[in-house]
Every structure is written in structure tokens, then in C-alpha cells.
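Lecture notes, unit on protein representations.

Consider one protein chain, 214 amino acids long.
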Amino acid sequence: MSEAYLEHEFQYSSARHQSETAISGMWLFLATEVLFFGALFLTWVYSRHFNTAGFDEGAKHTDLLIGSVNTAILITSSFVYYTGLNFIEKGRVRGLIVCCIITLLLGLAFMVLKFGMEWRDDFDKHMFPGPDFAITGPNRGGAMLFYVFYFISTMLHGAHLLVGIALVTWILVRAWRGVYDRMHYTGVEVVGIYWSFVDVIWLVLYPLIYLVGR
């Protein structure tokens, strides 16, 4: 590890101050994200209240198997990443590297299942809201609104997960270069907080999409 890295930046009074500021900054950023997703979920629930039958009809056409597998994947990814954090707290850099690689593979697996398989299947079945929407009958409007929320929310979650994958890749590269040790691993902790947030968002989306009304 270079001597320069051990020193804190000029705007901080100490290395500990710098670390605490980084962690607090991430929590502040996530607080704004909670407000954003909270508004989305509130609108979803409100709309469902007035279109219950249509939302139930839409939910029945979602792929419960892929949704459940993806939920297990994300929960496992958080466990693996925080195992890596535990490794670096003990100075075991190789353990952190292995856990980052596994976390990346799990994150990519989620993306492939969600967008490469499930979304493709949705489009093949004409579940995208529009003139060719597959569901007909009195519940068509409500089901279409369900899929509007479905595509918007999963797209936003996927974008956040993509950012998380990029951040874990950044941690992996820095760990490979020997930047982190048992005394200096703030970046690992900050990215872990973000990754867990992405998982929590999915744990809210999972029942809204796949379970409620099925």
C-alpha cells in the first residue's frame, strides 16, 4: 500500500474523519433514493387499490420461478459480499477478491435472468403495454397499468444494480492492487451499503410483482 493512500485528504481532519464522512455520504445519498423509490411504491399501491382485478390479472402472467431465483441470487450476493468485508477486516485480501468475483457473477446472473430471459419472454408474449397487449377483457386496462409499473420499476432497479456491479468491479480492481488492508477498507464498506440497498429494493418489488394477487 502506498504511503499517500494512508494519508487523509486535506479537507479532513483525520483518516477516521474521512472514513466516517464517506459512510455518512452514502447513507445520505440512499436517503434520497428511499424518497424516490418510496414515491414509486406508494403510487403503485394507490393505483392497485383502484384496479385490483387488473393488477391481479397482470401478476398472474409474471414468471414466479425467475423472480424467486433472482431473489435468492441477490440475497446470496449480499451475504457473499459481506463475507468479503469480514475477510478484509481481518486483513485477508484474497478472500475479499474471491467474494467480489462471486458477487459480480451473481449480479450478472440476475441481469441475464431478468432482462435476457424474463423481459424477452414478456415481449414475446406481448405483455408490453400498447396496442398489441396480450391481455383482453374487462381487466385489460388494470393489467396494462400493472405492466407499466413492472417495466419502469424493474428498469430502475436494473440500472441501480448495474451501478452496483460497476462499484464492486472497482473494489475488486483496488483490492487486486493492494489498496485495502485490515486498517483501510472504507471503500469496501461504502459499496456494501449500496449493494444491500439495491437488494432491499428488490425485496419490496418481489412481492409487488410476483406474489400479491397471484
